[in-house]
């Protein structure tokens, strides 16, 4: 067991990650209602010997924090309306040999009815699967048991993915903030 696993197990959590490791995948994480989601997800994924990248506002990549965020897999996001973040990430998938990217389609820790679909566009155009992750605070387990192959129809794909997550409403740290 690695240090990540010792910490994760030491605080009483466990993993249920049964999907195969892929060199390239989008990891969809929901419900997302707290900053603790990031910490628990990072600990869980690293505890099983895997590394995932994540998107973070470029604002946070300042000295000395930028070295920590890069080491943890951070990808700085510039707020530029002239460039497409989705297109940029698709290009990253095409250029890199390995990239597992964790995303939160809710885009906020607040209750939102409309989920973002960029992760579906990225996975479809980069020809990578979407692994569906849940951080279950109620049962203290991080779950990644299902893989989804996007069809290119974002509305239908999102409907299927949200249907999967509807079974996990009570898993959120703040269930009242999750709209499945």
Protein architecture, described:
The chain has about 180 residues and is α/β, with parallel strands linked by helices. It contains six helices and seven strands; from the N terminus they run αββαβαβαβαββα. The protein has a seven-stranded mixed β-sheet with strand order 1-7-6-2-5-3-4, with helices on both faces. It is globular, with a radius of gyration of 16 Å. The model has no long low-confidence stretch (mean pLDDT about 95).
Rg of Cα set = 16 Å
Number of strands: 7
* Spatial strand sequence of the major β-sheet: 1-7-6-2-5-3-4
Head-to-tail CA distance between termini? 35 Å
Count of helical regions: 6
Average pLDDT taken over every residue: 93
As a percent range, the share of strand residues is 15-25%
The outline comes out as globular
Helix-strand makeup class: alpha/beta
Biggest sheet details: 7 strands, mixed
The helix/strand order is: HEEHEHEHEHEEH
Helix content estimate = 25-40%
Low-confidence stretches: none
């Amino acid at each position: 067991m690695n240090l990540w696993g010792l910490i994760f197990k030491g605080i009483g959590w466990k993993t249920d990650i049964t999907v195969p490791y892929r060199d390239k995948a989008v990891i969809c994480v929901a419900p997302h209602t707290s900053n603790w989601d990031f910490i628990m997800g990072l600990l869980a994924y690293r505890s099983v010997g895997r590394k995932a990248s994540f998107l973070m506002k470029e604002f946070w990549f300042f000295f000395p924090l930028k070295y920590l965020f890069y080491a943890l897999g951070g990808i700085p996001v510039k707020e530029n309306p002239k460039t497409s973040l989705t297109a940029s990430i698709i290009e990253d998938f095409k250029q890199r040999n390995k990239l597992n990217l964790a995303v939160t389609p809710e885009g906020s820790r607040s209750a939102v009815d409309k989920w973002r679909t960029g992760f579906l566009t990225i996975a479809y155009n980069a020809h990578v699967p979407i692994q569906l992750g849940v951080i279950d605070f109620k049962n203290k387990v991080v779950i990644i048991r299902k893989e989804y192959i996007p069809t290119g129809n974002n509305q239908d794909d999102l409907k299927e993915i949200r249907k999967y997550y509807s079974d996990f409403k009570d898993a959120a740290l703040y269930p009242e903030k999750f709209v499945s």
